[in-house]
Structures are given as C-alpha cells and as structure tokens.
Model the fold of this input.
Amino acid sequence: MKTILDLARAKREQQPIVMLTAYDALMARIVAASEADLILVGDSVAMVVHGFPSTVHATPEMMAAHVAAVRRGTPDMVVVADMPFLSVRRGTAYAAEVAGQLMQAGATAVKVEGVTGHEEVISHLVGSGIPVMAHLGLTPQSVHQFGGYRFQGRSAADAERLRDEARQVEELGAFALVLECVPSALASQITEERAIPTIGIGAGAGTSGQVLVISDLLGLDAQFQPRFARRYLEGHQLIGEAINRFTRDVRGARFPAREEVLA
Done:
C-alpha cells in the first residue's frame, strides 16, 4: 500500500489488511520486501527495544528516532507512528507539535489512543493535514487505569461505549481504527457499522485486517507470548543456536576459515 487511501479501498474490496509493528531500518526492509501492507512504529518500542515495563515511557524524541530509522528502511510504505503518552492531553498546539515531529521524521500518519477528552485534538490534527489512525479497546497507555492488560467491552454498557467511540473517531476524520482486545462479536459489529477499516489485535477475525508486533510474530522473546500473538517462527531458539555454533567454531579454531580472511 502506497497511501492511506489504499486502506479504504481494501475494506471496500474486502481485501484483508496486514500491518506489522517494527522499530528499525533492518526490520523495515524485511517487511517492505514481504507481502505486508503497512508498518506501525508503536510506542511498544519502549518495552520491546528499550526494556521499560510499559509504553508510558515512550517519548516524542524516542518515537521520532525510530520512525526515522523505519523510514530509512522503507522509502515507500505507509508508516504509522504512535503518539506517545500524554502527547494528546496537553492541548492542540502541543499535540500538533509532536505529530509534526513524527511526520517530519518520516511518518505517513499518527495513531491516537482513545477519544474521550481529546476529540478536539483529533479534529485539529486531521484539519492540519495529519492523517490519524484511532485506537480503541485496550489502550496500553491507560494500562494503570485499567488495572492491567485486560479485555475491554465485555459488558453491554462497555460495548455500547466502544461502538459510540468508534462512531466519534470516524466523524472526527480518522482514516482507520485499531481495535485491541475486545470481544470478536463486538469487533465485527463495529467493523460492519463503520465505513473506515478496522485493524484488530486480539479482536477476532471479523475486522478489516490484523496487526502483530514483528518480534512476537518471529518468536524473538522466549518469555513473552500473548494468546492472540501467533508465533510463525521460534526465532529465539534459532538465533541462540546460531550464536552457539559461532561460539563453538571460534573456540574450535574453525572460524575464520582461510577463504574468510582478507589477504
């Protein structure tokens, strides 16, 4: 996909959308060479790359640096950047400044968690020429308020609230909507009700597309495997085995070989 308009077309044509979360130029090049559609530079970079316990530790500077790295790895793909913690709660001017920083770093669009309390910010960003992807359901920046990483929308009242929020973000101009950790029937209902495409994570198969973090897909972290993140590779095991083979070759004087030595 070359533009955000391709996502709307994909929904109209019932072509499932594939988004992967990546944080650096190397992974971006790999994703760009694949059949995936777009890249999300998520604020999960604070956890996956920097080792923090939650996404609230992501800063505008951190996000901009990783967006720039991803853009250098893929000149043409749609790249969506997360607006970091509190950046949409400090007024329209500050939000526009942060979003502008991410766009100048190479983002095609920004992603905003939630809607209540910052409706004006979303409208202002869209009106400023900054495409906005919305994010509802489990919004990780609110993990402390939720009391942990918990499914959302289970009760009738919560489900109705999420449906109303989905309507709001569409009316405010969001071009797409991430639905995270909500019941599959609710995600399907929202997808049917809204014209904009939905991208699910832990939200069943009834959304317009799916997103996974590249390190989860590749199984790079042996200690982390959420139920909704299918591993397509046991990467931690394969990498560990390769490192051990290299170590044994060095200790056994088998590396470097003669043909690997510069004259």
In short: The beta strands are 17-21, 38-41, 78-82, 109-113, 132-137, 176-180, 198-201, 209-213. The chain has two domains: 5-232, 235-263. The longest strand covers residues 132-137.
